[in-house]
Amino acid sequence: MLDAGTLVKQFAEEPGSVFLDVIRTASEPINAQAIKAQVIEAGVKKADVDHRWRLFQRGVKWHPHITAVNKKYGWSAERQSARSSLDVLAGHLLKKLPSWVAQHLVQNVAAALDASEATASGWDHEFEEARLVADLAVAVEVLQSRGDTITEVVKLLEDEARRKRLWPLGRPGESLLFDPDSHEAESGAPDNGTVVRVVRSGYIWRGRGEPIVAAKAAVAL
Questions:
Q1: In what order do the strands lie in the sheet with 30-31?
Q2: β-strand partners of 217
């Protein structure tokens, strides 16, 4: 637990992190009254604590380490899946994007997560999942802070993909020959070599050795 002076200063800058610290350091699940009492005891005004707590409650249910049972809040060290964190990001941080953009951004990251789960293991697997979600979160924060247009957002994500050695696998609207190793059909099961149309780009990772399909392109007949 933070000392009183540090707690008061941190509360002024980021009150949510103070509430989280109280929950994290508690020996057992703790109710709202006890959480607020510790902050007030450290020197924060009760009115400020009550106001900030109401705001905190709106988002705490989405926190990956917080459990809430019988009106008591506890800290869980168990790591949630990257997919569940992605779902939260998609449902909240991407609200400023048109649905037709947000949907495909989420699909691209989700497909990469699936590829990661299929090919990686151990610590590298966990880190890759976390990094993919972090990249998406960073891109969204940049969008929100700069008020970029959709064109600028797409360019930002493409540049980030290049830095991660990811290259597009097909472009929306492009016609190509179906390859089950690189493409996934939205419906049906096209024969190998059938002419199909790209609906959503996939990605190839050009890292070590031979290129690896990180996310298959979605195609339709």
A1: 30-31, 72-75, 66-69
A2: 183
Residue 49 C-alpha from the chain's centroid: 29
C-alpha dihedral (63, 66, 67, 73), degrees to nearest 10: -120
What class, spelled out in words, does domain 4-75 have in CATH?
Answer: mainly alpha
Asked if 199 and 220 count as a contact pair (C-beta separation under 8 A), the reply is yes
Domain boundaries, the chain: 4-75, 80-164, 166-221
**Helix residue ranges per DSSP H, 14-81:** 15-25, 32-42, 46-60
Q: Which two tokens stand for residue 57?
A: 């409650």
Which residues lie across from 74 on neighbouring strands?
A: 67
pLDDT digits (tens, 9 = 90+) for 99-128: 555 666 666 666 666 666 555 555 565 666
Note the pLDDT tens digit of each residue in 150-169. 676 667 667 777 777 788 88
Q: Give the span between the Cα atoms of 163 and 203, in whole angstroms.
A: 13
